[in-house]
Amino acid sequence: MNWPLKKKNNGDGNSNGHIIEMLGITKVYDTGKIQVEALKGIDLVVDKGEFVAVVGPSGSGKSTLLNLVGCLDTPSGGTYMLGGEAVAGLDRDQLADVRNRRVGFVFQNFNLLPQLTALENVEMPMLFGGMGRRERRRRAKEHLDRVGLGDRVEHRPTELSGGQMQRVAIARALAMEPDIVLADEPTGNLDTGSGSDVMSLMTELWGQGRTLVVVTHDKTLASRAGRVVEIRDGVVVTDERAVA
Amino acid sequence: MGRDFSVIATLFFKASSLQKKRAILTVAAIAWGTVAILMLLAFGEGLRHQMVKARRGMGQNIAVWWSGETSKVWQGLPEGRRIQARLDDLDYLRAKMPSSTGILGEMTSWQTTLTWGTTTITGRVTGANWEYGEMRHHYPQAGGRFFNANDQRDKKRVIFLGNQLAEDIFGEVNPVGEILQVASVPYLVIGVLNPKLQMGTYKGPDEMGAVIPITTFSAQWSRQWLHNVVFKVGVAEDMPRAREEFAQALSAKYRFDPADEQVTALWDTAEGGKTLAAEMRRFQIFLGIIGALTLLVGGIGVANIMYAVVKEKTREIGVQMAIGAHRSWITGPFVLQGMTYTLLGGAFGLVVAIILVLLFQLVPVEGNDAIAFLGKPTLSAEIAVSTAALLGFIGILAGYFPARRAATVDPAETLRYE
Ligand SMILES: Nc1ncnc2c1ncn2[C@@H]1O[C@H](COP(=O)(O)OP(=O)(O)OP(=O)(O)O)[C@@H](O)[C@H]1O
Ligand SMILES: [Mg+2]
Predict the structure, then answer these.
(1) What is the arithmetic mean of pLDDT over B231-245?
(2) Half-sphere exposure in the Cβ direction for A6 (13 Å, CA)
(3) pLDDT below 70 — which residues of chain A?
(4) Which of A27, A197, B178, B407 sits most deeply, having the most CB atoms within 10 A of its CB?
(5) Structural domain count of chain B
(6) Domain limits at B362?
(7) Rg (CA), chain B
(8) Helix (H/G/I), strand (E/B), else coil: B113
(9) Residues of A in Cβ contact (< 8 Å) with B9
């Protein structure tokens, strides 16, 4: 049996410990008439336990890059290894499995399923991962506890504030214990207060040894990251690690 | 497989069902289509039963031959000769027609005065062999009988009345046991025809005539020639052979060309029955197609609503894909939904159709000419099964096409933040 939770490689199983290894990645959007070259050759290596902030002006290709990292989309050129595994040539369902097991997504507009409760939203990736009902419930509760929403499990997204919704989304992203958490402007839709809550949560996750890649316009959030990658016009222009 | 099933089932039950209004409209459309197809088929079935019954009213697998004129010169004999069978030909024909299971002759007196007490009317009196009762479906009402071989041998003056004729003469009085004057000769009424549905007739409906033993008729009217001959076969397939035997036997006796259709032409109800059956089958298929189209329109309605749902839920579908849903987990619940609404509508439609059919059963046939002629709608297993199959098929299509649309959602594209 091919038990989907059985991880061949937990990100640290490969020799070099790289979770993301991108080489000469390009992405061209073909919109019929015009071709938009969103990424023009990205080299990016992220190790386990890193907190990477991706910054850059609007339209520079940050979201595009994040989608490729998360296997939501496939690159037009270059090679990409996620957790030591080449993702090129995987079919749609295999890519879905990779996303399910290795990647946790956090979106700017939360993207919770509106008709489900907070608990059910967090359960969803585990349902796709083939986990039993009881185990799902238990873990979902645990994750909600950890983001401080243990008393909101039966609430639906419409009954939650923006900050609470984003915390549910983070719990959902962590549900399958992914190799990497990807967040695209996680504080972009939040007021300063909830924004800084989410930021603290991110920093906390990093402290627990998780790997994060966060796209942000937010200087404060970027300053909390251990590494800042700046993109302009589809290429990496600076890549700085904060000295500890 | 196990995981696929449990994921699809869970999503199907978790997915917020359609808005109430939409769901009701959808189910109603399918229910209406189902009622339409079921009732059309049921009426067709009732009509078919009625037709078959009516055709059998005259008798089953029988052929009727009248006299004929030769149209060909044969063995030196000229054309234009009148060929007419006689009473004593019947034994000869019976011997020469092994494929036939019965043969009889009829003599007819058209305008005969029939008198009972002060009532006098004119009616049709047929002299026939005793086998007529069975072959021509002259079944008596309770308390009466048709005449038998002894009556025929003894030239008994007994008479069997058509039910309408009996009513015209006797009104409310039970005719059996009464004496009826037939052209001034007294006859004992021994039976009255049990009312029956009759479609074919060659000298007027049976309910309007009277029948007496052919020997009695021959004696009273001093007649030997037969107005017509009727013969019967056991199964319709035997009819062509029996007809051939009949033509051979008759032509040998009266010396004409057995291939002379002017003489041998007859009314073959077995053949007519086949045509009728095919005709009715075609009619039912026609009704079925009309019903199926109605149902198809309902199915398109379901598909349309499902398309709208897919469109509304594009972002949710994208989210599910982003967190690891396989394609079939996205499509499965939509297919199930399409099926569910269709089958739910179908079930409602079936219930309504059954109720309608049962209500029709309550309507009295008497005094309702339309029902007497068209019959009552009838549901059969065949109708139920074919409608269910059609519903299932439409249900799958109604879910499949919208689901296919859902599967093409590109998560990267839909989740882009505008
Ligand atoms: N699906 C698409 N089809 C066509 N062009 C696209 C598509 N997605 C992105 N692009 C283009 O690619 C370029 C990079 O877009 P991307 O969304 O990655 O930018 P971004 O850095 O995330 O910008 P922002 O900060 O505004 O979110 C832009 O020019 C954009 O118009
Ligand atoms: Mg972006």
Answers:
(1) 93
(2) 3
(3) 1-16, 243-244
(4) A27
(5) 2
(6) 2-56+273-414
(7) 33
(8) strand
(9) none
Nearest to A5 by CA among A212, A141, A140, A175: A175
C-beta of residue B27 within 8 angstroms of C-beta of residue B348: yes
What ipTM describes this predicted complex?
A: 0.91
Among the candidates B222, B244, B265, a domain finishes at B265
Angle at B220 between CA B149 and CA B106, to 5 degrees: 55
Distance CA B261, CA A25 (A): 93
Q: Are residues B193 and B235 in the same domain?
A: yes
- Is any atom of ligand 1 closer than 6 Å to the C-beta of A31? yes
Query: Residue B122: enclosing H or E segment and its boundaries?
Result: strand B119-128
Number of residues that make up chain A: 244
B383 CB-side CA count, 13 A: 26
Query: What's the confidence (pLDDT) of residue B190?
Result: 96
* Averaged pLDDT score across all residues of chain B: 89
Residues B160 and B281 reside in one and the same domain: no
Last residue of a domain, one of B225, B245, B265: B265
The answer to whether B165 touches B210, Cβ cutoff 8 Å, is yes
Does residue A61's CB lie within 6 angstroms of at least one atom of ligand 1?
yes
Task: Please check whether residues B83 and B193 belong to one and the same domain.
Answer: yes
The pLDDT tens digits for B287-323 are 889 888 988 988 898 888 889 889 988 999 999 999 9
Q: Which residues of chain B make contact with A63, given a CB cutoff of 8 A?
A: 416-417
Rounded to an integer, what distance in angstroms lies between the CA atom of residue A139 and that of residue A162?
Answer: 23
Query: In chain B, what is the greatest distance between 2 CA atoms, to the nearest angstrom?
Result: 108
For residue range B114-170, what is the model confidence (pLDDT) as tens digits?
999 999 999 999 999 999 999 999 999 999 999 999 999 999 999 999 999 999 999
Q: If you count residue pairs, one on A and one on B, with CB atoms under 8 Å apart, how many are there? A: 68
Two structure tokens written together for B145:
């009988």
